Amino acid sequence: MDIAAIEDGFPADRLFGRGYSYTYDDVIFLPHYIDFPADAVDLSTQLSRNIRLSVPCVASPMDTVTEASMAVSMAALGGVGIVHYNNTSAEQATIIRSVKSRRIPFVTDPVIMGPSDRILTADEFGSAPCVLVTESGSAKSKPVGVVWSADWWNRTDRDAPLSSYMVGLAASAPSSYDLEQVAASLGLNGGKCVPTVSEELGEVVDLVTEADVERIRALPKLGVPSFGSDGRFLVGAAMGTREQDKERLEHLVRAGANVVILDSSQGNSIYQIEMIKYVKSTYPDLDVIGGNVVTAYQAQNLIQAGADGLRVGMGSGSICTTQEVCAVGRGQATAVYKVSSIAQHSGVPVIADGGISNSGHIVKALVLGASTVMMGSFLAGSTEAPGVYEYRDGRKVKKYRGMGSLEAMTKGSDARYLGDTLKLKIAQGVVGAVADKGSVLKFIPYTMQAVKQGFQDLGASSLPSAHSLLRNQVLRLEVRTGAAQVEGGVHGLVSYEKKAF
Ligand SMILES: NC(=O)C1=CN([C@@H]2O[C@H](COP(=O)(O)OP(=O)(O)OC[C@H]3O[C@@H](n4cnc5c(N)ncnc54)[C@H](O)[C@@H]3O)[C@@H](O)[C@H]2O)C=CC1
Ligand SMILES: O=c1[nH]c(=O)c2[nH+]cn([C@@H]3O[C@H](COP(=O)(O)O)[C@@H](O)[C@H]3O)c2[nH]1
Ligand SMILES: [K+]
C-alpha cells in the first residue's frame, strides 16, 4: 500500500521544528517494515571524512575513560578510542605509542622484576597471576622467566631471589602478532604464557597467559578491527585550542595519532576555527574533528573552517552541569538531528556525544543522523577504563568524572591551563562513580546486537539507509508523554532483575 496514504506519526523535520528541545527519552520511533534478518544490518560507518569504522562506537576523551587499555579494546572491536589530554603531551604521546605497539585486543600491564629481586608480599603481584622476570628488571630488557603466584605461595622461603625458582621462558612473540598468532607461540614456553615484545620500542609490551587466550576466545565475535593507514590499531587524540596545543599536536602526530579532536564545550570560537585551519595546513592528511556544537550555525562555521567531523552535545553528558551553570545547550535528540541535517550536505560525519545510557539511545542517535556515538559513562565502569575498582555500599564501582569538574581541572591545570592559574575556575562537571560493567569486549558486541535489532524494526539495514529513510519521511516519530515514558520502561512489578544478556 502507498505509505503516504496511511499518514501516521511525525516526520523528523516537523517534530524537531516545533520549538522544543527533545532528548532521546522524549521521542520514540514508530516501527516500519522488516524484510531482512537482524544479522544483515551493517553498522559500519565513518568517524570522520577519511576514517571508517566497522562499529559506530567512540570512547570519550576523558581521563576516567580513555587511555591505552580502552583505546586498544575499542579498536579491536571495530570502534575507536580518543585519548584524553588531561596530561602532558609526552604522557599523551606515550599512551598513543602504547596503543600502536599492540595487536591483541587487551592490555595486560605485567609486573616486571629482575632475577635478583625478591617478592616479599602477595601485594607485589597486584591483580596479575604472575610476575615477569627480565634480565635487568625493566621492560626494556630480555624476558627470562616467570614466577606464578601459586608457586610463590607454596614456598617456605618466599624471600628467595626470583632466579632461584622462576620458570624459565624460552621464547617471546612480536607484539605485532594477533591473538591467534600469540596463542600459537604459547606452546614454545610450555603453553602457559608468552611475553610479547616490541622490536621498534625494544621493550616488553604484554605478558599473555593461556587464561587470557581462553577468556577472549569465549567472547562474542568482535567486529572487524579498526586499523589506521599505518596498519596499526586506529587511535585518536584530544587536544585544545591554545598556542601550546600546536606543540602537543606535533607530539601526537609523531606518536601516530590517526585523528585529532578539538575538545571544547562550545566549539564555535575563533580559537577553534584558527586551530582547525592550522591543523589542516600543517598536516593535510590528518583528520580533525571539531566541536562541540549543537546548532546548524555552529556546525556551518566549523565545516567552513575545514573540520572533517563534528562532535555534537552540550550539557547532555551524565556528569555535565553546563546547562545548569551556563544556561546554554540543547536536548541531545534535537541537537543531533539539527547538526546532522546540515553536516550531511557537506559529507561531514557527526558524533553524537553524551547522554547514551542504553542501546535504544544509540539507535536513536544513529537514526537521527549521527554516524557514531561517543560514550563516557557507558564505558567508564569497564575493566578497560583507567582507575581501580572500589567498593561503595557493597557495590563494585570505578570513579568517573567530568573533564570540567574542579578535580579534573586541578589535575590538568599545569598541562592544560598554563597561564590560567590566576583565573577563577568554575566547575561544569561533577565527580562520581559508575558500577562495574565487566569488559567492553563483552558488552559492546551485545549492545551492537541490540542496535541491529532496533535497525531491523525500522527496516533500515545500514546507517546510510536509516538516514535516507528519515530524510525521506518514511521513518516517523512521536514525542512520548511522561506516562508513555513510564509505560515504556519496566513498571508495575514488586521486584525484578534486569539482565540484558
Ligand atoms: N560537551 C559538553 O557539554 C561539555 C564538555 N566539557 C568538557 O570539559 C573540558 C573543558 O571544556 P572547555 O572548558 O569548554 O574547554 P576549552 O579549552 O574550549 O575552553 C576553556 C576556556 O579557554 C578559552 N580558550 C580556548 N582557546 C583559547 C585561546 N587560544 N586563547 C584564549 N582563550 C582560549 C575558552 O574560550 C574557554 O574560556 C573538555 O574536555 C570538554 O569536552 C565541559 C563542559 C561541557
Ligand atoms: O558539561 C560537561 N562537563 C564536564 O565536566 C564534562 N566532561 C565531559 N563532558 C562531556 O560529556 C560526555 C560524556 O557524557 P556521558 O557520560 O553521558 O557519556 C563527554 O564526551 C563530553 O562531551 C562534560 N560535559
Ligand atoms: K547533564
UniProtKB/TrEMBL annotation:
Keyword NAD: yes
Cofactor annotation: K(+)
InterPro entries, per the entry: Aldolase_TIM, CBS_dom_sf, IMP_DH, IMP_DH/GMP_Rdtase_CS, IMP_DH_GMPRt
Binding site for K(+): G315, G317, C320
Stored PROSITE patterns: IMP_DH_GMP_RED
EC code(s) of this entry: 1.1.1.205
Top-level taxon of the source organism: Eukaryota
Residues in IMP dehydrogenase/GMP reductase domain copies: 22-491
Chain sites annotated for binding NAD(+): D263, S264, S265, G313, M314, G315
Subcellular location as annotated: Cytoplasm
Catalytic activity from the UniProt record: IMP + NAD(+) + H2O = XMP + NADH + H(+)
Alphabetic keyword roster: CBS domain, Cytoplasm, GMP biosynthesis, Metal-binding, NAD, Oxidoreductase, Potassium, Purine biosynthesis
Pathway stated in the Swiss-Prot or TrEMBL entry: Purine metabolism; XMP biosynthesis via de novo pathway; XMP from IMP: step 1/1
Quaternary organization: Homotetramer.
Function, in words: Catalyzes the conversion of inosine 5'-phosphate (IMP) to xanthosine 5'-phosphate (XMP), the first committed and rate-limiting step in the de novo synthesis of guanine nucleotides, and therefore plays an important role in the regulation of cell growth.
Protein name as catalogued: Inosine-5'-monophosphate dehydrogenase
